[in-house]
Amino acid sequence: MDTSAGTRSKTPSLKDFRRIVVKVGSSLLVNSSASVLKHEWLASLATDIAGLHKAKCDVLVVSSGAIALGRAVLKLPPGALKLEDSQAAAAVGQISLARAWSEALGRHGLTAGQVLVTLGDTEERRRYLNARSTIAKLLEWRSVPVINENDTVATTEIRYGDNDRLAARVATMMSADLLILLSDVDGLYDKPPGENGGAKLVPVVSRITPDIEAMAGASGSELARGGMLTKIEAGKIVTTAGTHMVITSGRVQHPLRTIGSARCTWFLTPANPVTARKKWIAGSLEPRGALIIDAGAVKALRGGKSLLPAGVIRVEGAFGRGDAVVVRGPDGHEVGRGLVAYDADDAEKIKGRSSADVLLILGYTGRTEMIHRDDLVLGGE
Fold first, then answer.
1. Domain of 327?
2. What is the pLDDT of residues 88-145, one digit of tens each?
3. Which of 222, 251, 280 is the last residue of a domain?
4. Structure pTM?
5. How many domains does the chain have?
6. N or C, where is the chain less crowded by C-beta within 10 Å?
7. Euclidean distance between CA atoms 184 and 144, whole angstroms
């Protein structure tokens, strides 16, 4: 099990980073019993953000809480909400949430900029570039972007589903150095804390392996949609793209100040960076399908080769040419992600066949590769 820092002699410090994304969950920001904002806690976090800002660090916030605050304002009964009720509650709560952030940051002379995004804003390349440009301008103006999913219009089928993944996508989109996930737990444990005792904190994860993924448990928070599984997924997205991540407890005053002294889990990046285009590919949240490849193809990809049709043993999903797909080995574990050169129907026809057979099978000359090396990002790359 690879959980050590490897060749790194020490864990990072906040002063090592120049652009930081801070994710704040509903359970930290909103009192679950009274459904009211925790103003004192938010004020302490705003003080921490102001300190980083004064040190010339760009800070972006991904904040939950709109639906929870909307429920309080509208006096909705406890329990699960229908989609349309959640959307209406978000519309009301987002106003309260934006005002709270604006006031908390404004006390330190900082300007908050509200950014509401939908899944398409990060998954569609043109909209991705537009969203990145808008947020970059806010940072240039030394504002603090406060980002949330646009719950008022997102449907079950087209949503991030949790702000851990949204924060990861924002971090990769903006080339952040660090993603901080403020959580109701203080890091990743080798088994669920409290389960028969003896759970041990994993302080450093140098690579997210199947063993690390197996440690993730379900969320016990009433207001949060995401649990440790989504945090691990966020870690896979950001570390592949060259961004460090840390999970730490937000159940303390000044939670950013405590990083370095409090218990937490650091997820470290591999040594070799990836291009901006590959950051987008690596962070794809909703791949359209999957290609299952044989062991020889896995070895070839890790040796720097492209994926050829001959190495594909199974095609899953309904994807089109140019869509992002997951590449899995024969054991089912994810090897990487890439932009496929054929739609699913044609990929099914040429899987396992020589590239020289493509013209004969399909009746046209397609690309030699199923996924070109320039369009492929491997795990740990």
1. 287-378
2. 888 999 999 999 999 999 999 999 999 999 888 887 777 887 888 899 999 999 999 9
3. 280
4. 0.77
5. 2
6. N
7. 24
